[in-house]
Amino acid sequence: MSIRISTVFNGLGVPKDTYVAQESGYFERLLKQGINEKGTLCLITGSSKTGKTSLYNNVLAGMDRVPILVRCDSSLTSMEFWARPLEAIDFSRIKEIENSAETEIQATAKVGGTIGWSWLAGLIGEVSLGIRGKKEEVEIREKILAKPSASHLIPLLKNSNALLVIEDFHYLAENVQREVFQQWKSFTDERVSVIVVGTTHHGVDLAYANQDLVGRIQQVDLKRWSDVDLLSIAQKGFKKLKQEIPVPTMQFIAKECAGLPILMQQTCSQLFFDKNIEEVTSEDKISFTKTNATSALYNVATTRYRQFETWYARLTVGPRKKARKYDTYELILALFTQDPPKFNLYRYEIDERLVSAGLDTIKMPPPASINSTLRALAEFQRKNGFSLLEWSTKDQAIYVLEPAFLFYLRWRERKTVLPSVFETMLRSLLGWSIENLQEKVVLISSLSQDTKEAENLDTTHK
Question: For residues 457 and 177, which has the higher predicted lDDT (pLDDT)?
Fold first, then answer.
């Protein structure tokens, strides 16, 4: 029997065969604890693509809980915020819970029929909704959604296996955040747990929105994945495919995946795609080398993450390109291609990497040029509508905000080995490919019998 690669290695949705509990399941246990301690606001934070959605979906499935999802955006009003989860209810998936004994009972056991809008109206209070006499489900739904609020949602969450999940709460306008989160205390008072998903540096917004929530928040802050956990994804997938895993090759890929499980999934899938393999059987014996891995990493970067190219181009050009003596913006990006991979560089590390780059003195920007570039990053990105890098004056460090962008920086060009900063700058400034660069270096070396003379020729040529 054959198995399709896309059913095993798939970066979209919750993985089935390759799900790995990060840090030996620590985050799953932490989230489950918060849900079970009724009235807890479970705050899941972490960088983009670190597996926040997969985490809560896996935990809720194991607890037989049904997520009711709200995706926030800047246009959402406070009334629309409460309407969205009510509009998203799928009563066919919900089970009623007897609140006193906290045991499940059959949906049909409630007098008057199955779980639906009539059932919810009974929990909310028909009089308060203005419902008199027998009404159709459609009419009752319209009554409930006419003026949606937390008081309409809490009875549903308290008496069923549904659980409210809010994604991207930091996108809400500040005044809407304040209005919405002022009502969160009613959830804790009614002993109803909620999951909120956001980015790490916006996690404190909840406490600012309502200081009564301090001490009631269980924060599950996902870190970038370790190489060991990323390798486990590949191990599970290859085992499912009944293929022998090439450990050194996968360790190399894990190191380059910027701590993101989605990149490990996509690169493993790309390995097979590059060999024109869509499915395998247990009789197939497929091997992968480090050369295959470098090709796969390049192909993932230039197909799945090609959207970074426009932003990369704008960053490398920077403001007032013609007026600048040094290509400082481009150089700062090139520093991130140096080993080891790092998501932040302190100011002294920038200097260290510049020294190790071996740039000609004429191309080396002075400290003042580097400092002015770092200070100008925020405004330049704001004007161009993106935010990939952040310079912290307090920390004296530059941060890559989007982990996938670091991956793109390192793999946007085809290579057999990672280039030095010097090579990266030369390719950009002179328009050489790494292959042409290597050819020129070989040619220069062959023209000289003396190493020092060869270096002088190399410098003159460049």
Answer: 177
**Six-digit token pair at 241?**
């495919």
Closest CA to 426 of 442, 416, 440, 410: 440
Least confident of 65-69, 167-171, 217-221, 437-441: 437-441
Which is nearest to 237 in space by CA: 297, 205, 280, 192?
280
Distance separating alpha carbons of residues 162 and 9, to the nearest angstrom:
30
DSSP 76-123: --HHHHHHHHHHT--GGG--BEETTTTEE--GGGSTTSSSSHHHHHHH
Are the CB atoms for 39 and 187 separated by under 8 Å? yes
Fill in the DSSP letter of residue 211.
G
Instruction: Assign 162 to helix, strand or coil.
Output: strand
Q: Which residues fall within 8 angstroms of residue 71, CB to CB, at 6 or more apart?
A: 84, 167, 168
Please state, in angstroms and rounded to a whole number, the distance separating the CA atoms of residues 156 and 34: 19
In the chain the first and final C-alpha atoms are separated, in Å, by 58
Distance between CA atoms of residues 317 and 88, nearest Å? 45
Q: Mark 60-92 as b/e (b = at least 16 C-beta within 10 Å).
A: beeeebbbbebebeeebebeebbbbbbeebebe
In total, the chain counts a number of residues equal to 462
Q: What is the pLDDT of residues 235-263, one digit of tens each?
A: 999 999 999 999 999 999 999 999 999 99
Determine the residue type at 312: Y
Task: Report the phi/psi class of residue 130: left, alpha or beta, with left for phi > 0 and alpha for psi in -120 to 50.
Answer: left
d(CA 398, CA 391) in angstroms, rounded, equals: 4
For the CA atoms of the chain, what is the radius of gyration? 28
Distance (Å, rounded) from C-alpha 237 to C-alpha 31? 26
| CA-based nearest residue to 264, from 289, 288, 232, 240 | 232
Distance CA 247, CA 230 (A): 12
CA-to-CA distance for 258 and 408, rounded, in angstroms?
10
Parallel, antiparallel or unpaired: strands 41-45 and 194-198: parallel
Is the Cβ–Cβ distance between 165 and 67 less than 8 Å?
Answer: yes
* pLDDT (tens digit per residue) in 141-167: 888 888 888 888 999 999 999 999 999
Pairing mode of beta strands 162-167, 66-71: parallel
Tokens 């509990």 found at? 21
